[in-house]
Automatic annotation (TrEMBL):
Its EC number is 2.4.1.187. It is an enzyme of class 2 (transferase). This is Mannosaminyltransferase. GO terms for molecular function: N-acetylglucosaminyldiphosphoundecaprenol N-acetyl-beta-D-mannosaminyltransferase activity. It comes from Dialister micraerophilus DSM 19965. It comes from the Bacteria.
Amino acid sequence: MFDIKKSARNIMGINVHAISMEQALEFALDKIERKEPCMTATPNAEMIMLAQKDKEFAKILNSCDMLIADGAGIIWAGEQLGYHFPERVAGADFVENLLKKAVEKQISVYFLGGAPKVAMKAVERFREKYGEFPLAGIHDGYFDEKEEIKIIEEIKNRNTEILLVGMGVPKQEKWIYHNKDKLGNVFSIGIGGVFDVMAGVVPRAPKWMQKNRLEWAYRLFKQPQRIHRVMAIPKFMIKIKNWKGSKKK
């Protein structure tokens, strides 16, 4: 087992781990097999920019056991700063590969978040394609305080091993962080809109666009309402250039 702490790379104050998909899965499965609670996040340019303003969010990200380089912007930043990231570990791909392991090893999974019925559709589509995994539970992202208590009890009492939380950034990371001591020995990860992708509600970019770091452009084309989020990318690039210059002084 590799030492993940040695792979941490400082991207504007956030320690992202320069690891491959294979290493990320190895780390996750090791935590699950050992029954050790583990929190993971998938930072991209937008999240790093948000962390500059939201200090609680920055603290939560740096408290995670694993931060995988989800966005192409993180890989680009690494190149500018002299860091080598083996590859982009997209959150959607990581979740798909992790669920394949859940089928193989019969690991129980809880789906939390998304619009009503979307997570269930995501589960059905995945199972049709790859096979069955133990389903600990499903709940959409709409719940009050009373329901939240019940959800947390379900996650713990049903011996959940993987918890996928799709509530959007930074809500999902903050929810996991503030409830992690009540959830039991789970591998938890904030996955944004991955349920929508899995359910077929939102299509992913073609492979050639993913490989050429153009997935953001495809998502903007399909969802023009994301323009304010995409604008974080050029701001991030300028910030990285300035941050790199300040480090040299």
